Amino acid sequence: MELIQITNEMIKVNDRLNRAIIELNKLAKSKAESERDYRMALAKEYLRLKSEGTSVTLIPDLAKGKIADLLFERDASDAQFTAVRESISAIQTQASLLQSILKYQEGV
Q1: Is 2 helix (H, G, I), strand (E, B) or coil?
Q2: What is the pLDDT of residues 12-64, one digit of tens each?
Q3: Measured over all CA atoms, what is the biggest interatomic distance in the chain, rounded to whole angstroms?
Q4: Are the beta carbons of 59 and 49 closer than 8 angstroms?
Q5: Which of 107, 100, 97, 105 lies closest to 13 in space, CA to CA?
Q6: Is the pTM of this model over 0.70?
Q7: What are the Cα distances from residue 22, in Å, to 14, 87, 94?
Q8: Distance (Å, rounded) from C-alpha 3 to C-alpha 39?
Q9: H or E segment and range at residue 16
Q10: How far is C-alpha 77 from the geometric centre of its chain's CA atoms?
Q11: At CA 50, angle to CA 47 and CA 56, rounded to 5?
Q12: 72: Cα separation from own chain's centroid
């Protein structure tokens, strides 16, 4: 690999890393919001079921079933956040590899 190619690849990797970090910040907010929405809806559903006289042992399952869409959104947000975080780790590995190649090329 030529030094110019390596440098260009490093620039591309840096751009990808910057975009991924911006996306991770957006997903972090989305993840927190979906967690908040889920917990608030769950608490309201617990109270509603309790006020209706539902058996205490059934309340957790019934409440989660009633707000399953919010639970799905929460889990999906978490999965997206984790995927982007792992993607950032892979991009950092690529950057490290390119730096190693560059150091080797400079030494030759």
Answers
A1: coil
A2: 999 999 999 999 999 999 999 999 999 999 999 999 999 999 999 999 999 99
A3: 79
A4: yes
A5: 97
A6: yes
A7: 12, 13, 19
A8: 53
A9: helix 3-51
A10: 6
A11: 120
A12: 14
- CA–CA–CA angle 15, 18, 23 (5° rounding): 125
Query: Please, are residues 87 and 20 in contact by the beta-carbon 8 Å criterion?
Result: yes
Q: How far apart are the C-alpha atoms of 85 and 68, rounded to whole Å?
A: 26
- Spatial separation of the C-alpha atoms in residues 69 and 89, rounded to whole Å: 30
Nearest alpha carbon to residue 34 among 64, 78, 65 = 78
Distance CA 2, CA 15 (A): 20
38: its two tokens: 């889920």
Handedness of CA 44, 48, 50, 55 (dihedral sign): negative
Residues 38 and 64: their CA atoms lie apart, in Å, by: 9
Q: Strand ranges (DSSP E) for 1-108?
A: none
How many angstroms separate the CA atoms of 28 and 87, rounded?
A: 15
